[in-house]
Amino acid sequence: MELISKKMARIAYEALDSKKAEDIKVIEIGTISVIADYFLIANGNSSSQVEAMVGEVEERLGRAGYNPKRIEGVRSSGWVLMDYGDIVVHVFSKEDRLFYDLERIWRDGKNVEKSELDME
Q: N or C: which end of the chain has fewer CB within 10 A?
């Protein structure tokens, strides 16, 4: 995978983690799809936490010079999709994450541990 997308995934992971996101998953999908190199999936326990997670990802990636191609969903809703081209960040409420089950849909992708996102 490209170094830029790995860096973007690391920044997004750290942003989600800083807002106490639950069960952050990084799935490398670049070998099975042209959509992106990585999907990040996380959930919050309330609409305000989901809002905070989305805002933090947007702010940190923006400071690093990465702007979203599009953001879908309302921050106060149960699912916000943030498309950065090389990475796609999915921020869910707990209930919507269970309902949509993206991990099952993208099970052919490679699960990536946080340590694998660290830059050498």
A: C
